Amino acid sequence: MSSTAIAPPAAPAAQDRSRTRSTLPLIAPSVGVLLLWMIVPLVMTLWFSFQRYNLLNPEVGGFAGFENYEFLVTDPDFWASLTNTLVLVGSVLVITVVFGTLLAVLFDQPFPGQGIARVLAISPFFVMPTVSALVWKNLMMHPIYGVLGVLARAVGMEPVDWFAEYPMAAIIIIVSWQWLPFALLILLTAVQSLDHEQKEAARMDGAGPVAQFFFITLPHLGRAISVVVMIETIFLLTVFAEIFVTTSGGPGNATTNLAFLIYARALLQFDVGGGSAGGVVAIILANIVAFFLVRSIARRLEV
Amino acid sequence: MATLELRDIRKSYVAHEVIKGVNLDVADRDFVVFVGPSGCGKSTLLRMIAGLEEITSGELLIDGKRVNEVGPADRGLAMVFQSYALYPHMTVRQNMGFALRMAGIAKAERERKVAEAARILQLEPYLDRRPKELSGGQRQRVAIGRAIVRNPRIFLFDEPLSNLDASLRGQMRIELARLHQELDATMVYVTHDQVEAMTLASKIVVLQAGKVEQIGSPLELYHHPANLFVAGFIGSPRMNFLEARILGADGGGVRVALRSGAEIVVPAAMGGAQAGGTATLGIRPESLRPDPEGPIAGEVRLAERLGGLTLLHVTLAGGEPLVVQIEGGDRTGAREPIRLAVDGAACHIFDESGQALPALERHPLAA
User: Fold this and answer.
1) Which fold would CATH assign to domain B237-361?
2) What CDD domains does this protein's entry cite (chain B) (predicted)?
């Protein structure tokens, strides 16, 4: 009786084509905006990096070939900034992952005031980088007014002038303080997702707390740790505000990373061409890192 | 030799008591099954034996020694978890050898024990796979293998078959029975599935709300349930309960009258019950049979035909429901009147407090 109600199925290919045609205008605006947003700055950076373009000397212009790049790679500051970038990224990654894992295991244990403690531990992430760097610079690490200085004097020690004596360590501390909550947050959810019965089975198998951590918890956290490493690497390659408000890349070039070097080239020395060349190098580096990271992590996620 | 004794074991969470004084003796090579509805405390009790939950009061003795304060790894027990709790990043070999590795046993010895367990469980081809690459039944076997390699004094099973599909469950049930024989081990097993309990157990412990309702062999519980709860819990389909009045007792047993007026003599002693008092008559669906002369009259409401047998859902003249199990070949269908006969010896009488009146004779299989 109702057999006539069934429509003959359309050929799948035709259906797909008509579907593409009908949805294309709808997604076109966002795709178009995104494309312009990405492509225009990228192409302009590329273009400028091959131009003689110094705002202090506008008379000199024209195509520069690889001059800007040559100038960049022969500049000792560039290699120093690369090293600084790697040191900063590497140190912060190690600190946040190690302490994040330990804190996550700690915060997984029930204790009174757990909820408040968790909120407090996570809150540094919600402070903007400029503010937290200023807080650390003036309230914590200042040799005269800073908390650390006061503490040092209280036990009869000479206060440390962090930004003069250990500038890179100071930056690493500040950036780690900001990113530790992120690692903690991701790792804590991972710790909490560990099957309770697995831990109990390990207990029955005679694994003490330390063995449980290394044989059960840590392998379980593998994926979460790789996610933390990937996301943090992407953001840590471009740390800028913390350096800008504390050391401005100094003393000398001790805390100049690639992002700060590009800023200094383009906006302090007004060398747009040289700055753009640095930008292109940064893009290439970031993509190399991203390629390896994504590949290795994708392999991990499959397992 | 491994015996287990529970002496007035109790467990409370703050003010709420969940295990209310359990006494139990498990002999060497016993297969004890804890059954009961969800939330009756059977898993908690097992976890207390394992050492994963603290014992609030009472004594737990393994081989006669108090182990209340001994850690789970040092009690000489092994547990198979409901979720199997295999370590996902380790291979089958590593999973099974983990406890031995923790105990600091040399690699060669470890390998030998794992190989032996793998042989018993037919897991040899899978030793280098990870749990993820195994089927449910294989994972189950790995979990059992992990227990076997430790050569424990007592095996604990926490609803180990509940995650398997029906056919695999039947297969694993037979496997477990075979293992019990082969390993000569003492086993404690928790389940809510009474088929598992009946087929595996040498001793069943029926629990309800943290209390032991009855302890006995499977057929003892089936033929001589101590009270209404056990009678209703053991046996499938469930025992029928009919309201009855006690008329009196003589040498042949207790005479009761149903609401419809039908009288049945059950070979039981009066115990604490009074003549003239109300009682509950319990009749298993399989002890009822259609009989044109039978004393119980009703109408068939529904016939569930399972092939080999048929379940008739009957409404009695008084309105009480009754389930009757008959031959699959019987033609009786829905909306037909039916008369039923029952052998008094297969009936049970429960007094007003739900306790069974003692049977005059024990069933030969439940001695």
Assistant:
1) OB fold (Dihydrolipoamide Acetyltransferase, E2P) (2.40.50)
2) ABC_MalK_N
